[in-house]
Prior knowledge:
The structure is a single chain. The protein is α+β, with helices and mostly antiparallel strands. A two-stranded parallel sheet has the order 1-2. The longest helix has 20 residues. The chain is globular and about 50 Å long.
Amino acid sequence: MDTFYHILIYHGETIAQWIKAGYQDLPEYENFKQLLQAPVGDATEILQNRFPMPRYIVTEAGGSQVNPLQSIIFCFHFFLNLGSISPLQS
């Protein structure tokens, strides 16, 4: 996710389990290794060319760095639903 000030690579629960199991290091899972490296390459290119330099975060489901992702999604969800809230609702 690129929010201009943050570049965040998020691994869901299943991908995080596969990484912990070391599948990316096995020759028969070369495609998985390439899948993991693709966003890192994109992020590296963005980091080299953008000013001010964004914060680079790699996290997984339940990880300690997931808070920026949750706050961005919460704000987006809030503003999408802002028009449907009536001032008379409690």
